[in-house]
Amino acid sequence: MTPAERLRRYAELAVRVGANVQPGQDVVVTCLVEHADVAREVARESYRAGAQHVVVLYNDLHLRKAAVELGPESEIGWSAPYLLDWIKRWSTENPALIALTGNPSPTLMSDLDPALVGRSDPRDIRAAFLENIQGRHVNWTIVAAPNVGWATEVFGEPDMERLWEAVGVSTRLGEKDPVAAWREHNEMLQARAETLNELAFDAIRYRGPGTNLTVGLISGSKWRCATFETAAGIPHVPNLPTEEVFTSPDWRRAEGHVRSTYPLVAAGTKVTGLEFRLEGGKIVEVDAEIGAEIIREQLATDEQAPYLGELALVDGSSPVKQTGLVFSDTLFDENATCHIAFGAGFPEALGREVPADELLDAGINMSAIHTDFMVGGEDVDVDGLGSDGTATPIIRGDVWQL
Amino acid sequence: MTPAERLRRYAELAVRVGANVQPGQDVVVTCLVEHADVAREVARESYRAGAQHVVVLYNDLHLRKAAVELGPESEIGWSAPYLLDWIKRWSTENPALIALTGNPSPTLMSDLDPALVGRSDPRDIRAAFLENIQGRHVNWTIVAAPNVGWATEVFGEPDMERLWEAVGVSTRLGEKDPVAAWREHNEMLQARAETLNELAFDAIRYRGPGTNLTVGLISGSKWRCATFETAAGIPHVPNLPTEEVFTSPDWRRAEGHVRSTYPLVAAGTKVTGLEFRLEGGKIVEVDAEIGAEIIREQLATDEQAPYLGELALVDGSSPVKQTGLVFSDTLFDENATCHIAFGAGFPEALGREVPADELLDAGINMSAIHTDFMVGGEDVDVDGLGSDGTATPIIRGDVWQL
Questions:
Q1: Distance from CA of B78 to the nearest CA of A (A)
Q2: Which of A261, A285, B318, B395 could form a disulfide with B243 if both were Cys (CB 3.0 to 4.6 A apart)?
Q3: Distance between CA B248 and CA A388 in Å, rounded?
Q4: Residue-level pLDDT at B1
Q5: Does residue A182 have a pLDDT over 90?
Q6: Is B66–A44 a contact, with Cβ atoms under 8 angstroms apart?
Q7: What's the number of CA atoms in the CB half-sphere (13 Å) around residue A375?
Q8: How far apart are the first and last CA of chain A?
Q9: Cβ distance A9 to A1 under 8 Å?
């Protein structure tokens, strides 16, 4: 496979499997300037799939850094109204949304005041994105765009070819028919989700070094995987790769402490050694070797930010895990191992239609933020707890037990 | 001067001399993804100058190519409404505008159907830009961002250092105090403009190989140079470099034929050997070795597009000319030699306030397009004609005569 063929196949995966762009639909690609080569191929493939218009919103982390460092402090976290208004209109315009990830400069902000950096995300725009996703207004996907900075972060040298290979393995790009391979993989994940749904656990317990956390589930809620569907019925795969079965827990029920097992890149800072203590569902203590203040700022986003929105289970059979790499990119690292998110949950986890203003009461967390952190690995046992307290092993030594 | 110092000085020139960004003002930078390093430094310098917000609108010619090649034909030239609406609001928001030029792929579109390519510019957005400029709503400047593709176009190899040197010479960046050097240069251009205004020619005549063109001026109109002023009174320098004295001719008065002396990059095509014949002010014949159809499409933009909007006089003392280079970039090539534009004129040339709906009657052309083409050089004589037909030499052998 030539690099050009690989790029084309990768864009096909993003457009046809990931976002599942429909004929006549508009496509929005959000990415960084460093992602231009993938963005261009995604645009081309979107037109081939029948897109009406493709708009690429190029962002640039260096501009955010300039604003934090040299701009007026009162404006940090500002959302450009022209963009915000449009993103809000997606609830009726219903474009397909393809977000590219792969941070070219994961530690760009680390020399700046973390309290300012933590506020630098354009909050209103982030909230508008989440509303479109929670409202199932857009068929969306997140895929990575290999770039020199990211390769350097992963390998210590700008080895783009090696990064492309790792991304290729992780996304099953080398399979003879990647689209068919994804269908088959989806069935395996679906089987896992169905087993979990039959077992109908009351809670999930994580135990390992620095971790002893029990998170309560919503009665009747469902484990989901791979494929979402928009309100209008367009199926799509929000993450490529995706190796997880996940649900939204009851935001009111989490007790214990948890230590993250991977670094986490947030707001231009690589957060390491992250630890939380939770009480009554709420994160009440945050500690980290580097970057605790970034996370504290995120948790201060709104009242519900310090509550959990997602539990996701991934075992060591994940091809992402099998690369043996730490990608320092949430899309990849979260598909290498179990993870948890604080912030917004997924209404789909309820398995029934619930009006937006009743979701909180139903147990689904609502917030303008959603941050995943990794908690799995060889040393972390994951159990399902029945309402009588009996424990059923789900993962042991990174191997799926059910 | 290290490359970092050079970049910083260049950004200072763009922000402090070019756009003249005011404290508390918003700044919009329009550029291509290939211009990111200059855009970032311009953003930093804008914040240092007191900007409130800096928004960089990254564009990408490869996306336009994808739309022409693979998108629906009916949508070619589409303007994204979210962007168009905002640009229209600039008439009251009055941001500073910094446009970066320097085409990284001047012949990107040359393998596509020229009729489609000629329509691919987002017409409504271009018109909205011109309205902001003609209405003097924004303090604006155009500066170049050296990039690998442009260097390859100019030198046949990606010699970025040599391109930066040529750009540095052209923009007086090597002067001890570039801002003072620009002030002095401005005074020289101002003296030329005043001489022309005192002579109050009735017409300008160009004669050279393939050229014999006489263009009528508006009675009482003014020659201008370098510095513009917004309606609110912010002085700014729209082009860096700027070596021209210019005016808007009477769009109803042009007779003869003219051969362009430089290539012209338009819509991703390098137009060469361009020739026009004009009658009663109107371009009635177009010929070219390459790209005539691109120009014909531009001339079909609207009813007034085939009439002239600008005459600009530049002699061989221009440091841009003295580099000896063809930049294949209008900002540079038009400041190396005399040029003419078809399409929109400048109301400022009237030297008095005239309501927008009376400009056409006053002789100022109004159009959604403004395309400069180069007509000067050693072999082209430029004369001022009095109303009695007497000719006064202005330029001979590329040397200013007045």
A1: 8
A2: B318
A3: 87
A4: 83
A5: no
A6: yes
A7: 30
A8: 37
A9: yes
- For residue A254, give both structure tokens: 């989490």
Output the pLDDT for position B178: 81
- Distance (Å) from the alpha carbon of B396 to chain A's nearest alpha carbon: 47
Helix (H) or strand (E) holding A63: helix A61-70
Predicted confidence band of residue A178 (pLDDT cuts 50, 70, 90): confident
ipTM of the complex: 0.92
Is residue A353 pLDDT above 90, yes or no?
A: no
Alpha carbons A341 and A276: distance in angstroms, whole number: 12
Q: How many CB atoms lie within 10 A of CB A201?
A: 21
Residues A287-313 pLDDT 10s: 999 999 999 999 999 999 999 999 999
Using a CB-CB cut-off of 8 Å, the residues of chain B touching A80 are 53, 55
CA atoms within 13 A on the CB side of B119: 14
Tell me which residues of chain B have a pLDDT lower than 50. Answer: none
pTM here?
0.93
Taking the domains of chain A in order of start, what are their residue ranges?
Answer: 3-170, 190-223+243-397
- The CATH T-level fold of domain A3-170 is Thermophilic metalloprotease-like (3.40.1830)
Cβ neighbourhood burial of A61 (10 Å; 0-12, 13-18, 19+): buried
**B83 contact residues in A (CB cutoff 8 A):** 82
For B60, the closest of A36, A47, A62 (CB atoms) is: A36
pLDDT for the residue numbered B40: 98
Which residue in chain A is spatially nearest to B36 when comparing CA positions?
Answer: A33
Q: Please say if the pLDDT value at position A180 is more than 90.
A: no
| Nearest CA among A398, A341, A6, A61 for reference residue A175 | A6
The contact set of B with A (CB < 8 A) is: 33, 36, 39-40, 43-44, 47-48, 51-56, 58, 60, 62-63, 66-67, 69-72, 75, 78, 80, 82-83, 85-86, 89
Q: What is the rounded average pLDDT for all residues in chain A? A: 95
User: B82 vs A80: CB contact, 8 Å cut-off?
Assistant: no
Encoding tokens for residue A325?
């790499």
pLDDT of residue B226: 84
Chain B closest CA to A58's CA: distance in Å?
Answer: 6
Length of chain B: 402
Q: What are the structure tokens assigned to B84, written together?
A: 């168009």
- The reported pLDDT for the residue numbered B69 is 97
